[in-house]
Amino acid sequence: MRPERLNPLFAEVSTLPHVGPAAARALARLDIHLVKDLLFYLPVGWRHTRRVSGLANARVGERIAIAVRISGSEPARGRGPTRVLADDADHIGLVLAFFGPKGVHLARRFPTGATMVIAGKLESWNGRYQINHPEVMHDGATEAEPIYPLTEGLTSRRIAQLAAAALDRLPPFEEWIEPSLLAANRWPTFAEALRVAHQSADSSTAAAARDRLAHDELLASRLAWLLVRQRRRRQRGHPLAATGKLTGALLASLPWPLTGAQHRVFTEIAADLTTPHAMLRLLQGDVGSGKTLVAVLALLVAVEAGAQGVLVAPTDLLARQHFTTLSTLLAGLPVRLGFLSGREKGRQRDSTLRDLASGTIDILVGTHAVFMPGVTYHDLGLAVVDEQHRFGVAQRMMLTEKAEHPPHLLVMTATPIPRTLQLAHFGEMDVSRLDERPPGRQPVTTLVMPLTRLEEVIAALGRHLATGAQAYWVCPLLEAGADDSGDGSSAPTPAVVRAGMLRQHFGDQVALVHGRLAGTARDSEMNRFTSGAARLLVATTVIEVGVDVPDATLMIIESAERFGLAQLHQLRGRVGRGREHSTCILLRQSDLSEPGRQRLQMMRSSDDGFAIAEADLRLRGPGEMLGTRQSGDEGFHLASEEQISRLMDGADADARLLLDRDGGLQGRRGGAARLLLYLHERDAAVGTLRGG
Ligand code: ADP
Ligand code: MG
Q1: Per-residue pLDDT tens for 38-70?
Q2: Which of 272, 302, 460, 537 gives 309 a disulfide partner, CB atoms 3.0 to 4.6 angstroms apart?
């Protein structure tokens, strides 16, 4: 139960003065629901206004505040602005320009002869100083104002006022950071840090304040992870005794041997599974390195030991594909498979749940629905989670609830993750790497072509399909309103439109899947492609991870500059899976920026997922990519990636020290840290404590 002291911060924003339903709705669009959310919604920059005594001291282009005397006005001519004329103390003229039909009010706001202080960006026009739409400054106006990320219906000034009101609600807090760490970094207290972050334009004090707040967030994360681990240590795991019967039979049935890396990694995993402590292992392996087979072998160990296994994919599509893959691989073995996603309903779902609870199902394949309350296992020994960029405390706890003893956990990802981010997103895990690809995989030829050569590309696609091969055509996701500003020529064509156009050439050889297509329709389109009935799959990035159709040897990616490099690498990994040579064509818009060019060039010159991921970080221009910010369970609101990598080790040490001294968080600092966990919504971890 959350301590009452926090109630003022966990009240709805609508309890703040002057926040009506409209403002509350606008705030909700920024994900600000509670008073504490406002506290953690920090400015992204500051707007500075320099007070000058006269225009002679000002620079064109700078934002100034200046005292002037109004000397007259000029009515608007044609489409030009209405001009109010003013003089500074030295009688240098300044034009205050107002565009739009505002003339009437202006005479009242700027009466001739009045003196006032106005502010705005100084420009020069037709040999005269000019400020467009200046503001009239009132006494006590500040020279620096915070800038907040905004949505319609809110201004930065309004958010600053609301943040101030939220700051007034702060209850007193004891310090939760180790005092020596606080002193060494000269960090302010929590309350002071919030105040400075919202209200101080001084960049050096603000930097310290922001670091402290980022540290707090990382500390909460580390504490949560360590508490979960602490509890796990108290619990006995689920040792699985392998017989080698099923894994041996599977290996004997494969047309090729394991790669050296697959063999090594499976040995590591198998050793973990026999121990009485629950395994926590992260398996990193580039696209096509053969992670699925390693997962299947591990799941078979669980079945050999008489327990159950579960394989979880991030999307329904991938889960179904894994189900198909496993059905084929395990066809000759006495292993019973089940499938469960959010889409299963009614009788089908009931019978799956019954078979799972009775132990009739040995291996369940599905989406995260397999962890939901109401899904009961007979004896869950191992969970494998595929293509996951984070697996947070709350998810880990849900998994633990599924068995008397916490099951072993294997998380698989194709994304190389630096250690600090790994700590942030997965907690500590042992890491295995599949650093070798199965032999015989064809290198993929990558071409970059401008969209102006679309007809050529379609002709080449036609020749490709005529040979009997299959192909993908990937279109970027359209973010609502993202492209309505330009003339449309460089706007990406949504998958639906492109598919319509390609159908004019290739008829019903074309299958189409995209995010808005209903589940069953999407499945049947996907099936048409995987079964070979359709030859060309037009898709948004839903095919990004895991889809495996060896006959597809051509990949066309439209508006490739809009994708992250790691994403392009994943997409390209969908081809080059069969015997035939494969090609990937990156269609780009014609007027590409230099970094944009370099990024696509990187795709031509490298096939190494790790190198590409690094280049991606290096060459990533702001706003050049589709949103990559991840939200959800273990997301960080305050700590940037840079802060995570700089501050994570310190936060980790701080958390360990605290728990070494006070594992139950009962003391003074421990009690404060409990409040911190609530402030950062790590409630699940507090639940592991007595009296939590
Ligand atoms: P990923 O690591 O990207 O999930 P997959 O598990 O989908 O890769 O494997 C990619 C392809 O490689 C699959 O078609 C799979 O059957 C094949 N494969 C896996 N292991 C081997 C191996 N040892 N030798 C040859 N092919 C393999
Ligand atoms: Mg995979």
Answers
A1: 999 999 888 888 899 999 999 998 899 999 999
A2: 302
Which amino acid is present at 417?
I
Residue identified by tokens 């190198």 is 611
Residue of 293, 386, 530, 574 with the most ligand 1 atoms within 8 Å of its CB, for mutation: 293
Average of pLDDT values for 570-598?
87
Hey, what amino acid is at 518?
A: A
Residue-averaged pLDDT of the chain: 87
Predicted structure pTM score:
0.68
- Tell me the C-alpha distance between 44 and 18, whole Å: 24
Residues bordering ligand 2, an ion, CB closer than 5 Å: 546
Phi, psi torsion values for 667, nearest 5 degrees: -75, -165
pLDDT higher than 80, residue 401: yes
386 has a pLDDT exceeding 70: yes
State the Rg of the chain over Cα: 30
Q: Say what the pLDDT of residue 481 is.
A: 38
Residue 76 is predicted with a pLDDT of 81
Residue 325 Cα: closest atom of ligand 1: 16
Question: For residues 479 and 167, what is the distance between their CA atoms, to the nearest angstrom?
Answer: 35
Q: Which residues line ligand 1 (CB under 6 A)?
A: 256, 258-259, 262, 285, 287-293, 414, 438, 546, 548, 577
Which DSSP symbol is given to 4? G
392 φ/ψ angles, rounded to the nearest 5 degrees: -80, 180
- Closest atom of ligand 1 to 287 CA is 3
Separation of 387 CA from ligand 2 center, angstroms?
7
The residue whose C-alpha atom lies closest to atom 26 belonging to ligand 1 is 438
How far apart CA 223 and CA 216 sit, in angstroms, is 10
Residue nearest to atom 10 of ligand 1 (CA): 288
Q: Choose among 553, 496, 504: nearest CA to 525.
A: 496
